[in-house]
Design brief:
Layout: E1 6-8, E2 11-18, H1 22-30, H2 32-35, E3 51-55, H3 70-73, E4 79-88, E5 92-96, E6 104-112, E7 115-123, H4 128-150, H5 157-172
Antiparallel strand pairs: 1-2, 2-7, 3-4, 4-5, 5-6, 6-7
Helix pairs in contact: 4-5
Length: 173
């Protein structure tokens, strides 16, 4: 977690300075193959109301062969679609989370010289359990995005995820 992260029962805020220009980061948000390297692959219908498909393919997030923890194993290969709430290429993407039941995720990209300032806000959470669960996930996925854009390896996504969950739980008290 970064010092700028805010973990609260009904909203998560993550800010990262990424080693890539805005157009490159945008492609990592909307291109299925690139999104699959740090989060989840899936087709993007680039319009408000369009589908934002997600495929749980976390086995592709580690550079080494790593087993999926038992509590996530049943999710492997599952796919679903969220809805794009707002899209302003290449600066803003907002989509529902769990069909809107668990809020909305908004990602804003701002140029910072040859880098990009990313702000991810997950609002409308149902309470502390969502904040802990999704906060750990976003922290881990954003760390993978940072590594991919900087050309660094991600040996074990699941170890990173466990560490991120522990940090979020500690931050919430």
């Amino acid at each position: 977690m970064a010092d700028t992260d805010v973990i609260a029962a009904h909203e998560l805020r993550f800010e990262r300075l990424l080693d890539a220009p805005v157009d490159t980061v945008w492609r990592y948000l909307t291109d299925s193959e690139l999104r699959g390297r740090w989060f989840m692959p899936g087709k993007t219908e680039p319009r408000a109301g369009g589908a934002f498909e997600m495929i749980f393919a976390h086995e592709n997030l580690s550079d080494e062969a790593v087993a999926t923890p038992e509590r996530f194993a049943a999710n492997a290969g599952k796919s679903w679609s969220e809805r794009i709430v707002a899209i302003e290429p290449p600066h803003r993407l907002a989509f529902t989370w769990m069909g809107g039941e668990a809020g909305t995720v908004t990602i804003e990209l701002t140029p910072d010289d040859d880098r990009t300032r990313l702000l991810l806000v997950h609002s409308g959470l149902r309470g502390p359990d969502d904040a802990r669960s999704f906060g750990g996930g976003w922290t881990a996925h954003l760390a993978v995005l940072e590594a991919r854009l900087a050309g660094r390896a991600v040996p074990n996504f699941w170890a990173l995820h466990a560490e991120s969950e522990a940090k979020v739980k500690a931050a919430m008290g």
